[in-house]
Task: inverse folding
C-alpha cells in the first residue's frame, strides 16, 4: 500500500524533437525552453520501456511548463498508451494536502498545533503522554503505523470506517517518547483526517474539494471513490512472474488522509503555482510547513508538515514521494529557482523509480545536472585495495566487498548494492545517481570514502577490513525439500519456501518472491534483503528469521 520505487519516446521524436516537445510543453516555447525540454527528455526517457508501465512527467520553470510528457503504457493488459493528461493515484503526496487543511483550521483559530490530540479525539488513549497535532504532522508522535502491522496486507481490500481503523492501532504501545524521534508513519495522518472531520463538520474528501481543489481549479484531483473528473485514469500495476499485472486490491477507505488522492501532473503544477503565489495560507504558515521539525534532542528531523526538506545539488528542495498499490510518485519543488517537477508512475514495483526520475530532471532544470559516469575495467588488486569497513555513524557501518562482478557496498541492515568503477577511486551505482570516492594517504592506502549524494558530500572513515561475506554452498535438494512449506511469522503473515529446479525461494504475504541461498543445510540468506533464515536442527520444525537486529520465530503450518 503506502509503501514502499527505453527509448520509445526518443524514437518518436527523432525527426522533429523540438516541435513535438514544444507542443507538449505548450505553444510559444522559446528555443532555450525547447532545448531544455530536449535535454531533460533525453536524460529520463531511458528509465521507461514502451511496453511496460509508464509515467506522466511535468517540469515547470518560472511558471511555464518546459516539459509535459507521457512515457510507456497506461494499461499493459489493454495496450493503452500513457497520455500526459491522465490521472494516477498520488499515494503519500496526499499528506501535503492534509497538512494544508490542518493549517487552514489553525489560521481560523479552530485548533492549535500544540493541542493534545485527545482534545479533538477524546476516545484516543493518552497513554500518559502528550501527543500534539504537530507530532502527527511531523511523524514524531511515536504512534505505530497501521500499515506496518503484521498481517495488514491481508485486509487491504476491506472497507473500514474511520473509527474502525483508528481502533485497530489506538491501543498499541508507543514506539518512543513523542517528539524524540522521527519515524515515518501513516497513522498520524489518518488521525489528522479524523481531526479535520471533527472540527469542520465535513468529510475529509468534502473539505479538500471545497476548500482546496475548487478554489485552485484542480478539477482532476479527488479522493478516489468519492469523486471523479474528466481525466482518463491510468491502471495500476505490480510486478509478477510474467512481467506486470494488476495491483493488489485496496479499499481507499484505508489510506484515507495519508494517501487516498488521485490527480494529474497538470493539477499538481496548479497546486505548486498556488503555493508559490501564497494562496490558501498566510506566508508564516507556509514558512512553518517548509521548516524541518526540531526533535527534543535539538536535531532536525528533515521533515516539515507533509514535506521532506532537503538540499539537492546544493539548493533547497521541498518534496515528497508516494507508494501505493499499483503506483509510485514523486513531486519536488525548488522555491528559489522557481522550478517544480512531478513524476507519477503507474507501477508500485518498477521499472522506473519516480524519485530518481524527478531528481534527474530537476538537476537539469536548475542548471546543476547530476554527474554521468562511464564504466572502466579494474583488475582484482585494484578492487581489493578499496574493500573495507567504513563508519557512517555510531553503530552503523558501510562495508565494501569483492563480488563475482566487481564490488558491492552494504550498509548495516540494508541489502547489498552492486557498484561499477569509473576509476580506481570512483565507483557509482548503476541506474542511480549516488557515487563513492575513496581517499588515500601518501602511501596509497585507503583511509576514507565519501558518498556524493544530491550534491552533498558525506565522509565515512575506514575503521577496518571487510568482514567475511556470506558464501553460498551447494546442498542436496532433498535437504531443502524438508524445509519447503508455509510458515507463520505472525497471525495472517506467512512466508512460503519453495524450490524451482536447483533454485530456492522465499515469499512473504503480499511481497515478491526472493531467491535464497544456502550457507548450510539449516541456514539460508538472500542477496536482496539483509536477512537470514535459521532452522531448528530437526527437519519439519520452524525457523527463526533474523532481520533488522530482531529474531522472529516462525512455525510451520
Result:
Amino acid at each position: 500500500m503506502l509503501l514502499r520505487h527505453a527509448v520509445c519516446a526518443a524514437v518518436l521524436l527523432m525527426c522533429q524533437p523540438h516541435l513535438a516537445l514544444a507542443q507538449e510543453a505548450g505553444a510559444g516555447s522559446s528555443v532555450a525552453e525547447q532545448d531544455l525540454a530536449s535535454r531533460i527528455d533525453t536524460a529520463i526517457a531511458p528509465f521507461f520501456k514502451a511496453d511496460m508501465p509508464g509515467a506522466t512527467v511535468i517540469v515547470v520553470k518560472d511558471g511555464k511548463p518546459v516539459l509535459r510528457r507521457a512515457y510507456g503504457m497506461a494499461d499493459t493488459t489493454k495496450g493503452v498508451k500513457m497520455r500526459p493528461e491522465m490521472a494516477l493515484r498520488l499515494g503519500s503526496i496526499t499528506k501535503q494536502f492534509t497538512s494544508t487543511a490542518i493549517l487552514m483550521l489553525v489560521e481560523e483559530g479552530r485548533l492549535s498545533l500544540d493541542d493534545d490530540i485527545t482534545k479533538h479525539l477524546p476516545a484516543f488513549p493518552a497513554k500518559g503522554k502528550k501527543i500534539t497535532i504537530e507530532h502527527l504532522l511531523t511523524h514524531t508522535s511515536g504512534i505505530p503505523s497501521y500499515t506496518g502491522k503484521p498481517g495488514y496486507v491481508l485486509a487491504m481490500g476491506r472497507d473500514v470506517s474511520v473509527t474502525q481503523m483508528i481502533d485497530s492501532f489506538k491501543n498499541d504501545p508507543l514506539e518512543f517518547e513523542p517528539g524524540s524521534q522521527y519515524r515515518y508513519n501513516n497513522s498520524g495522518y489518518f488521525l489528522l483526517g479524523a481531526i479535520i472531520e471533527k472540527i469542520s463538520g465535513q468529510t475529509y474528501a468534502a473539505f479538500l474539494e471545497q476548500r482546496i481543489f475548487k478554489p485552485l481549479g484542480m478539477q482532476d484531483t479527488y479522493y478516489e471513490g468519492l469523486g471523479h473528473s474528466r481525466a482518463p485514469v491510468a491502471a495500476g500495476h505490480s510486478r509478477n512472474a510474467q512481467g506486470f499485472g494488476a495491483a493488489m486490491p485496496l479499499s481507499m477507505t484505508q489510506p484515507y488522509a495519508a494517501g487516498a488522492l488521485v490527480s494529474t501532473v497538470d493539477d499538481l503544477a496548479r497546486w505548486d503555482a498556488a503555493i508559490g503565489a501564497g494562496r490558501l495560507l498566510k506566508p508564516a504558515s507556509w514558512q512553518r510547513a517548509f521548516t524541518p521539525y526540531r526533535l527534543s534532542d535539538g536535531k532536525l528531523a528533515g521533515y516539515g508538515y507533509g514535506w521532506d526538506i532537503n538540499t539537492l545539488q546544493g539548493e533547497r528542495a521541498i518534496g515528497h514521494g508516494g507508494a501505493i498499490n499499483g503506483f509510485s510518485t514523486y513531486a519536488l519543488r525548488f522555491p528559489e529557482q522557481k522550478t517544480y517537477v512531478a513524476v507519477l508512475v503507474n507501477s508500485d514495483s518498477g521499472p522506473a523509480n519516480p524519485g530518481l526520475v524527478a531528481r534527474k530532471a530537476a538537476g537539469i532544470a536548475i542548471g546543476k545536472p547530476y554527474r554521468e559516469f562511464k564504466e572502466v575495467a579494474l583488475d582484482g588488486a585494484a578492487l581489493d585495495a578499496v574493500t573495507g569497513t567504513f563508519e557512517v555513524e555510531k553503530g552503523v557501518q558501510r562495508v565494501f566487498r569483492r563480488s563475482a562482478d566487481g564490488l558491492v557496498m552494504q550498509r548495516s541492515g540494508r541489502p547489498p548494492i552492486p557498484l561499477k568503477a569509473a576509476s580506481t577511486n570512483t565507483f557509482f551505482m548503476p541506474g542511480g545517481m549516488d557515487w563513492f570516492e575513496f581517499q588515500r594517504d601518501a602511501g596509497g592506502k585507503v583511509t576514507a570514502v565519501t558518498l556524493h549524494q544530491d550534491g552533498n558530500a558525506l565522509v565515512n572513515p575506514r575503521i577496518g577490513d571487510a568482514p567475511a561475506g556470506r558464501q553460498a554452498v551447494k546442498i542436496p535438494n532433498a535437504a531443502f525439500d524438508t524445509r519447503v512449506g508455509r510458515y507463520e511469522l505472525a497471525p495472517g503473515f506467512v512466508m512460503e519456501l519453495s524450490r524451482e529446479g536447483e533454485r530456492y525461494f522465499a515469499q512473504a504475504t503480499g511481497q515478491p518472491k526472493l531467491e535464497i541461498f544456502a550457507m548450510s543445510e539449516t541456514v539460508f540468506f538472500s542477496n536482496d534483503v539483509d536477512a537470514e533464515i535459521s532452522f531448528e536442527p530437526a527437519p519439519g520444525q520452524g525457523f527463526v528469521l533474523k532481520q533488522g537486529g530482531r529474531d522472529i520465530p516462525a512455525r510451520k503450518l
In short: The longest strand covers residues 315-324. Residues 31-44 form the longest helix (14 residues).
